[in-house]
Amino acid sequence: SVCCGESPEPRHEKPRLTKPVDPQKALIKRKIPMPLNIAILASGSGSNAQAMIDKAAAGVLDVNICCIVCNRPGAGVIERARKAGVTCVVLDHKEFADRESFDLAVVQTLQDHGAQLIVLAGYMRILSTAFLEAFSGRVINIHPALLPSFPGVHGGADAINYGVKVSGCTVHFVEEKVDSGPVLVQAVVPVNAGESEDELMSRIHVMEHRIYPQAIQWLAQGRIDVQGRQVHLKPGNSPRAPHDGDWLVWPPLEQGF
Ligand code: GRF
Q1: CB atoms within 10 A of CB 256
Q2: Which in 5, 26, 112, 170 has the greatest CB count within 10 A?
Q3: Which of 43, 48, 68, 80 to mutate to test the pocket of ligand 1 (most atoms within 8 A of CB)?
């Protein structure tokens, strides 16, 4: 079972004897649970990372983005992180001897920043076994098609070229086999007649920017339970988001997303 809503291991266990405790601060510390530390791994423009940054800044997504790791120097996500004041670590995979040594450096970086949930957002690298073992059950990804149809790097375009009448996006847990882990949430959008690939993909991206932060919020709230391939969402207190377009999201989007 997955338990990303849990607090991290306390880092400093020794009581501080030198400074007196500010009772106001102590109270705040007790009352507000520590937000989930998420790390985002990205290789490209980072529009999904931006959606998470914006939702967290708006107080809708209760997480701390502890770092963004990017494997491509010059990628758009780096500038987005800088503008938002989020720590961004650039590790160029080309400077490492092999996948294992690169992944070990990424894992070390993620652990140094206290990452509890690893969010892949356009991260164009296959994760090694060592990586997945280090964050077992705590890595999620988004794919621009309705899995298990159209996996792979060109999944979005493949669906359109196939001539499907609906497509969409899928948030799923990451397992060794690419695009195959248990499904957290999916969004379905219609394929309009005569629509170009770019038009459809941009409508899918709009839904990505809604369901990915939503899935992370469910994890942050400790509402996700995984039994084999089945991902169960525990009931919460938020009402459903208004249905404002031609889309279906299941489980339903909640207010703020
Ligand atoms: C998205 O289409 C996502 O589904 C796929 O990679 C793309 C990332 O886009 N995994 P961005 O970098 O978040 O804009």
Answers
A1: 16
A2: 170
A3: 48
